[in-house]
Every structure is written in C-alpha cells, then in structure tokens.
Design a protein that fits this description.
Layout (H helix, E strand, L loop, with lengths): L11 E4 L3 H12 L4 E4 L3 H9 L4 E2 L9 E4 L6 H11 L4 E4 L5 H9 L7 E6 L20 E5 L6 H13 L3 E4 L2 H24 L6 H4 L4 H7 L6 H10 L1 H23 L6 H17 L12 E8 L4 H11 L6 E6 L5 E8 L1 H13 L3 E2 L1
Parallel strand pairs: 1-2, 1-4, 2-3, 4-5, 5-6, 7-8
Antiparallel strand pairs: 6-7, 9-11, 9-12, 10-11
C-alpha cells in the first residue's frame, strides 16, 4: 500500500521503540507514513530504526500529527503529559494495556486532555523488544479506543486511521469497560498460566517428559516478562483481584467435590464446573471474529524436511481450507503430530482424501 492509500494523514511520532512501538512504526512505514522514533535507550531506538520502523527524531523535525506513546504502564501518564506539553497541536494516544489508571492520573494533575485519546491494541507476543516487532502484528486484532464527550472528532479520526491502516478492528469502550474486559481475557489468563507453570519447577524430569499439548497450551504465555506484568497487574489490580477471588471460589468448590467424589452430589458438582468451561470456550471468538467451532484432525507427520509443506499442498488439492494449525513433536520419536482445524462439514472428506494419499490420522 502506498502513501496515497494510507488513511493516516501527516507524520507519526512513536515514543517507546519496543515491540508495540516498533510494530506500529513498521506497519505505518509499509503504508508510506513518515514515522519518527524516540526511546530512553539509544540502543533500542537505533535498533528499531535499523529494522525499518522509522527514523530517529531530531530537533529539526516538525511537530507530528499524532504521537503514539508505547512505554511501560508505570510511566505512561508521565510520558503522555510530556508529549502533550511538547506537541500542543498534536493528538496523543497511548497503547498501554490499562486505560483507567493513566487517565485518572492525568486528570488529577489538571492536564487538558482534549487532544488525548487512550487506546489499546489487543496484540502482542510472548517476548518483547524491537527485534520481535512485526508490521502485521495488529492485523485482524481488536484495537480499543477510549474516548469521552470532549474528544474532538478529528482527534478520534486520526487515532482510528492509524488503527485501520495497521489492519486492526476498531472497538470503542470506556476506560472502565476496557480494564474490566482485559482483566478477564488477558490479565487473569496470564496469572493462571504463570501459577500453573510454577508448579512445574519442583517436578521431576520424568514427569516433565510426559508433557503434551494440553500443558503447552495452558502455559504458553507463562514465559512473558515478569517485570512488565507486575506493572500491568498493579495498575489493574481491582478487576483482577475480583476475578481471582471468584476463581478461588470455583477452585475450592471443585477441590471439595473431588476430595470425596463418592459423596452425594459430588460428581454432579464436578461435571457442572467442567461443563461451564465448555460453555465458556464456545464463546471465545474463532476465525474472523466468529465463535464457529471447528473439527480438529490429528495427522501423523514423519520428522523429515518438506513433510508439512507436502501436507498443506495436498490439503489444498483436496479443496480443504485449513482454519488453524498446531504442531507437536513426540519426545524420543521421529514423528510429529499436525493438528488441523477444519469446518465440520469437510472433515470426513479431508480424512478420506488424506488417507488415499498415504497420511495417517488419529
């Protein structure tokens, strides 16, 4: 996409050249937008510039149309305040994962927030830094924009233009709605995943060797940066504590029922809690924002070069659209498992077609 096709008008200045900031820069640069970069670390900003996320801002650069603050949550309010003072004619947004705390802090300082629009792209990776940045990081991901009745239409339009140029899906929320929502779908899963993974520390190597996809799925995000999450959870502590308290009640009820499953009603209590999990999973949006459920086929794949490419090619020849793919290796064996999600109505045809081509499915 060239500059004429970009919705974003004017230059964009990114403060904080880590994963999110550099990804914003990479995505906008692909669309011809002039992006300047700033970071407390000269090495970080130079690295982001080397990767093509923009150029290091100089004193001679004119004021940008938009400033994107992509700094850690504990300094977001300070950086937003400085950006508003340094660029009084520019719109300022931030991409912090909490929205209420920075807004309340800025309001308590008596700062004019007319040109400030809080936002949050629901995107990230397990590891941060400019080296992990991607131009397509925000593609098809929700981008929450928090406005109030004083937000000028042109300021809102500029923030929305950047989100749309980066391929995101716009959602409007109040800061309170945002923080409660991310507490449920992002912050609580992080805590649960980390605590579960912590149970692996004292485990024997023999036990760890039995790990399969279930453990990998539930602990994948446990490798996230603890320092960053201390900041995020501290800033959004009230919704997260409320959710943890509710989860603790469920865990206690489950443990009590499991303690004596022969007791009257115990099995039903266990089943009800597990069934509630089924209903919850069904509500998670799937491909293209749909909650449609898919059928998963497990295909045995020899651990040799080119086998996955061959599998995908032959699925295409069968006219099967693969909705999702997950790979797992079998410890100690020269074989792997490709878990392929397809629409239920084509599952049988996929199994038969793959079998005719020599593939084994489970």
């Amino acid at each position: 996409m060239n500059e004429l096709q970009a919705r974003t008008r004017g230059s964009v200045h990114v403060i904080g050249a880590g994963l999110l900031g550099a990804s914003v820069g990479l995505g906008l640069r692909e669309r011809g937008v002039d992006v300047t970069l700033e970071d407390l670390s000269p090495t970080t900003v130079a690295l982001a510039a080397d990767y093509g996320a923009g150029r290091v801002r100089t004193a001679d650069d004119p004021a940008p149309a938009l400033v994107v603050v992509a700094t850690p949550p504990d300094v977001t309010a300070d950086v937003v305040e400085r950006a508003l003072a340094e660029f009084p004619g520019s719109v300022v947004t931030d991409v912090a994962s909490v929205k209420l705390a920075p807004f309340l802090e800025l309001a308590s300082r008596g700062i004019d927030l007319t040109n400030y629009v809080g936002s949050h792209p629901m995107a990230g990776r397990e590891r941060g830094g400019a080296i992990m940045a991607r131009a397509d990081l925000f593609t098809a991901r929700p981008w929450v924009v928090c406005r109030d009745h004083e937000t000028p239409a042109e300021a809102l339009a500029l923030v929305e233009a950047v989100a749309l140029d980066l391929g995101a899906v716009l959602i409007e929320m109040t800061p309170e709605e945002h923080d409660r929502s991310v507490g449920l779908v992002s912050h609580l899963p992080q805590v649960v995943s980390s605590l579960l993974a912590a149970r692996l520390v004292p485990a024997t190597e023999q036990a760890i060797g039995l790990a399969g996809a279930g453990l990998r799925d539930t602990t994948r995000i446990a490798s996230s940066d603890p320092e960053l999450w201390v900041q995020i959870l501290g800033a959004n502590r009230e919704p997260v504590v409320e959710l943890l308290d509710a989860l603790a009640v469920d865990i206690a009820a489950f443990a009590e029922a499991l303690r004596d499953p022969t007791r009257s009603g115990a099995k039903r209590r266990i089943a009800d809690l597990l069934s509630a999990g089924n209903r919850g999973v069904e509500r998670i949006p799937g491909k293209h924002g749909s909650s449609e459920r898919f059928t998963t086929l497990t295909v045995l794949v020899d651990d040799r070069p080119g086998q996955i490419a061959r599998l995908l090619t032959e699925l295409g020849e069968l006219g099967i659209n693969m909705e999702d793919l997950r790979l797992e290796h079998s410890p100690g064996a020269q074989i792997g498992f490709a878990e392929i999600a397809v629409l239920p109505e084509v599952a049988e045809r996929a199994i038969e077609g793959l079998a005719e081509r020599g593939w084994r499915t489970l």
